[in-house]
Amino acid sequence: MQSTEEVISPDFLRRLAAVAARETLPRFRLPGAVVNKIAGGFDPVTEADRETEKALRALIRSEYPDHGILGEEFGNEGADAGLVWVIDPIDGTRSFISGIPLWGTLVGLTRDGDAVAGMMAQPFIGELFYATGNGAYYEGQHGQTRLATSATKNLADATLFTTTPAIFEADRRASYDRLEKQVRLARYGTDCYAYCMLAAGQIDCVVEAGLYPYDIVALIPIIEQAGGVVTDWDGGPAENGGGIVAAANSSLHAQIMAFLHGD
Predict the structure, then answer these.
(1) How far apart are the C-alpha atoms of 86 and 57, rounded to whole Å?
(2) What is the pLDDT of residue 1?
(3) Most buried one in 22, 50, 154, 205, CB count within 10 A?
């Protein structure tokens, strides 16, 4: 079996990030049409989402024609292949349309369903977080550094992020509220950026619900290869999305799971 490094290189992730920057930056903080994808709620999509995904798909197809692609805006393309790219062209579209630079482009790679490589690119800030099987890395204002999660072992010392407590259904909201009372600091928002801050050791845990594969696949290798743990709410693989529990280490993850499940 090929190693992940033989399948994908950091340079290819940089090329994907450059494509994302080319498509998103000219459209950021400029007037543009926003389309709501759902009735009875608000799930925005913009020209930037669609054009970015089109461009990313084109580059992946040209480089890896035998690989599958799953994207938020244009669905499955050969998704039964052993190697499948998973794309969220703008994770944090609500931030994007609000002019807040905490959105990011997510591109992950799965092998037989397991997330093995991924990147989060934030072109406005000029940062790239990625993992290809040989550790997780940051490139940006501080040069290139290897990422490592924090050594925080106790919930009482931890910083917790979620998009908003409003994402949780009633039963899980109660569990989340119980968890939040245990941590030192809880903050909301930042979408994919929170997971990268977890990998970078800046925060300690992220708990969310209602995610899709394209929201999390790219982030799993970054966190795991930085030393963290990512599962669903039942402790299983996170690649299919749903409820997500990400923590800096196994000890902290176990404490979070205990509080979420009332143990």
Answers:
(1) 10
(2) 44
(3) 205
The pTM assigned to this predicted structure is 0.94
Q: Is 91 annotated as a binding residue?
A: yes
Using an 8 Å Cβ cutoff, are 44 and 34 in contact?
A: yes
The domain in which residue 111 lies consists of 8-144
Radius of gyration (Cα) for the chain, nearest Å?
Answer: 17
- One domain, residues 228 and 210: yes
End-to-end CA distance of the chain: 41
With tokens 């999390």, the residue in question is: 216
Last residue of a domain, one of 118, 144, 170: 144
Last residue of a domain, one of 144, 179, 205: 144
pLDDT band at 233 (very low <50, low <70, confident <90, very high): very high
Q: Is 234 annotated as a binding residue?
A: no
SS3 for 51?
Answer: helix
pLDDT of residue 142: 86
The domain tally of the chain equals: 2
